[in-house]
């Protein structure tokens, strides 16, 4: 829905999304292109979308897509089935889309990665890493607006994204 909303905004307001939207994800490029095409089907106007395969939590990949010079960056919430760094999602079947784990491997991962709170902390830590990478000074005069998807509220002392934003704003 986000890409479709951007396409609608572009069609309704001149100058909105006048530059390409760049998607960086650790997903096969062809798969991303198909998902984008499907998401923009029947959308008004023409939204230019460029897809790049890479890890959004990796500084080098953020540099590769010039994310630090973007006007706006949206950090979507990572989903365990899509991000191998997070381990297993804890599904009852022991497998997820794109997973090659056996049931025993998945059960072992669930046990070693712990419960829901630890999962939330891992997800938040990854988003905090993106925020810190994007807003690191490096002698720049301007920074992108960073919008972070937060599907749940973390306790203040454990909200790693909020801590990252505070650290970045003290420059």
Structural key phrases:
171 residues; alpha/beta; two-stranded parallel sheet; two-stranded parallel ribbon; 6 helices; 4 strands; 40% helix
Task: Please tell me how large the radius of gyration is.
Answer: 18 Å
Task: State the total count of DSSP E strands.
Answer: 4
Q: Which strand order spans the largest sheet, edge to edge or round the barrel? A: 1-2
Report the order of strands and helices.
HEHEHEHHEH
Contiguous low-pLDDT stretches (5 residues minimum) are 84-113
Please estimate the helix content: 40-55%
Kindly estimate the percentage of residues that lie in beta strands according to DSSP: 5-15%
Distance between the termini: 35 Å
Structural class: alpha/beta
Average the pLDDT over all residues and give the rounded result: 76
Q: Specify the number of helices.
A: 6
The general outline is globular
Largest sheet: 2 strands, parallel
SSE blueprint:
Elements: H1 2-12, E1 21-25, H2 29-39, E2 49-53, H3 59-64, E3 72-75, H4 103-113, H5 116-135, E4 145-148, H6 160-169
Parallel strand pairs: 1-2, 3-4
Helix pairs in contact: 5-6
What report would you give on this structure?
Helices cover 40% and strands 11% of the residues. It has 171 residues and is α/β, with parallel strands linked by helices. Strands 1-2 form a two-stranded parallel ribbon. It has a two-stranded parallel ribbon with strand order 3-4. β1 (21-25), α2 (29-39) and β2 (49-53) form a beta-alpha-beta unit. The longest helix has 20 residues, at 116-135. It is globular.
């Amino acid at each position: 829905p986000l890409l479709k909303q951007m396409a609608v905004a572009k069609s309704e307001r001149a100058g909105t999304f006048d530059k390409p939207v760049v998607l960086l994800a650790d997903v096969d490029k062809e798969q991303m292109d198909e998902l984008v095409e499907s998401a923009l089907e029947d959308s008004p106007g023409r939204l230019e979308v460029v897809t790049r395969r890479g890890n959004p939590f990796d500084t080098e990949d953020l540099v590769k897509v010039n994310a630090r010079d973007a006007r706006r960056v949206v950090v979507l919430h990572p989903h365990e089935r899509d991000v191998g760094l997070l381990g297993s999602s804890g599904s009852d079947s022991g497998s997820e889309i794109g997973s090659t784990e056996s049931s025993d491997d998945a059960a072992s991962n669930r046990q070693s990665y712990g419960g829901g709170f630890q999962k939330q902390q891992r997800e938040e830590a990854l988003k905090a890493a993106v925020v810190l990478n994007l807003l690191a000074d490096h002698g720049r005069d301007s920074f992108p607006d960073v919008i972070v998807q937060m599907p749940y509220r973390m306790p203040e002392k454990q909200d790693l994204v909020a801590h990252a934003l505070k650290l970045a704003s003290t420059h």
